[in-house]
Amino acid sequence: MLVEPEYARLRREEPITRVTLPYGGQAWLVTRYDDVRFVLSDSRFSRAASVRPGAPRFFEQPVAEGLGYIDPPRHTTVRRLLNRAFTARRVQAFRPRVQEIADALLDGPAGGSPPIDLATAYAQPLAGQVVCEFVGVPYEDSEQFAPFFDAVVSTTAFTPDEIQAAVSGAQRYFADLVTAERRNPSDTFLGELVRQSANEGTLDDAEVANLGFGVVIAGYETTASQLCNFTFLLLTRPERLTWLQENPDGISGAVEELLRYVPMLSYGGNPVVATEDVTVAGQLVRAGETVVPSNNAANRDERVFTEPDEIDLTRRSNPHLAFHHGPHFCLGSQLARAELQIGLRTLLTRRPSLALDVPPEKIRWKRGSVLRAPAALPVRW
To answer: Which pLDDT does position 65 carry in this prediction?
Structure first.
């Protein structure tokens, strides 16, 4: 199932219900698709308030910075600046480079004698090199900042002090990159962001560095995790794997369905706080109360998706919420789609006999992380 079966009952009987979060107390959990979209897009719900001291949350260490935790009008200003640097044209022009990186990895690290760990030999370096090159971060420096990423996406695997030290270290590295871009601007996303911020005067160097760091970490760990998740799922569903290998042109629709079906986060959803009284699913939510809109539950809503608990790689209508909705819709969704489409298609085309090297139940999964993914994915061909 991958998604908690209780969500189905809640959608039928209690589309908004009280839950207790691990830290900070109670919140409202919202599970129907239309209601989740409403909460994600309505300006009366604040992401910034959700990380204030004492707010109900899932993790001991609240996230306090980043584009995902600021509200309009500041969010609108910053997002407009990012959109000018992160254009669909720039992503489209980068697709051939994604293909080159995928091929090179299968010719090199992921092309050795099996078994290999697909996570470390293919998924992680593919996602890492793509997002680094796109943003303008030297991939050869990844040994300096990649260790920070494990800590930043940690829930319990690292202490709060270790997480803060990791964030500080990454911020220093990206601050140095911004300083270099000021002196000698490149044609990368970061270079364009530096130029745009200088023209508008809306962001200082520290803010630009934080945004660059945020884009890299959002595109690195998440895409690598989902590429492993998708591959694992297909290798344990032989009929779906065979269909996709025989119909490689169906990769775009298949990726959309896998995005809908496979949850990426290990927790219920990103909390928001009502800034005034607002009615959700017939329930009055008071100002100051926390709401958890569950994208995972929404993506299985039978009112929107036919047979939502089945994987249909040819699904025609698929308005999933894997990339969120509203003001915080994922900035890098098109780059993530390019990586997942090209990465998966190249892997299945060039490794037609790909298979797990251990029984599915022997796969180890990440623990203490906000991301749901195999800790390692041993495969053979």
So the answer is: 63
Distance CA 183, CA 205 (A): 13
**Residue in the structure block whose two tokens are 């494990």:** 150
Please state, in angstroms and rounded to a whole number, the distance separating the CA atoms of residues 246 and 299.
27
pLDDT tens for residues 158-210? 777 877 777 777 788 889 999 999 888 888 889 888 888 888 777 888 888 88
Q: Following DSSP, what letter does each residue of 58-122 receive, concatenated?
A: SSSS----SGGG--TTHHHHHHHHHHHHS-HHHHHHHHHHHHHHHHHHHHTGGGSSSPEEHIIII
Burial class (CB in 10 A: 0-12, 13-18, 19+), 120: middle
CATH architecture of 6-380: Orthogonal Bundle (1.10)
Say if residues 311 and 250 touch (Cβ distance below 8 Å).
no
d(CA 104, CA 71): 41
State yes or no: cis peptide before 352, omega within 30 of 0. Answer: no
Q: How far apart are CA 276 and CA 28, in angstroms?
A: 15
- The CA distance from 107 to 345, in Å, is 15
3-state helix, strand, coil in the chain (%, to 5): 55, 10, 35
> pLDDT per residue over 85-135, tens digit each?
888 999 999 999 999 999 999 998 777 889 999 999 999 999 999 999 998
The type of residue at 325 is H
Domain range list for the chain: 6-380
Distance CA 360, CA 9 (A): 28
The DSSP symbol for 286 reads P
| pLDDT digits 0-9 by tens, 343-380 | 999 999 999 999 999 999 999 999 888 889 999 999 99
DSSP state of 332: T
* Segment 41-98, tens digit of pLDDT: 999 999 999 999 899 999 887 655 678 889 999 899 889 888 888 889 999 999 999 9
H or E element at residue 256: helix 251-261
Angstrom distance (rounded) from CA 349 to CA 365: 26
- The 10 Å Cβ neighbour count of residue 112 is 9
**Surface-to-core class of residue 89, CB atoms within 10 Å of its CB (0-12 exposed, 13-18 middle, 19+ buried):** exposed
